[in-house]
Amino acid sequence: MQTTVQADERFYMLDLLRGFAAIAVVLYHGDRLVPAGYFAVDLFFILSGFVLAHAYRGRLRSREEIVSFLVKRAIRLYPVMFLGALVGLAINGGSLKTLLLIPETNGILYPANLPLWSLLFEAIASVAFGLFHLFGKPMLAAFFLVGLAIFAFGVLKAGTADLGFFSGAFGAGLGRTAFGFSAGIVIYYLCRGRHPISPYLAVWCCLTIVAVTLLQPGSPLVELLVVTVVLPLAIFVLAHLQPASNGLAVWLGNLSYPLYAIHHPIIKLAEDSAVAVVATCIALVLVSAAIYRWYDVPVRQWLEKRWAETA
Question: Does the keyword Disulfide bond feature in the UniProt annotation (predicted)?
Answer without folding.
Answer: no
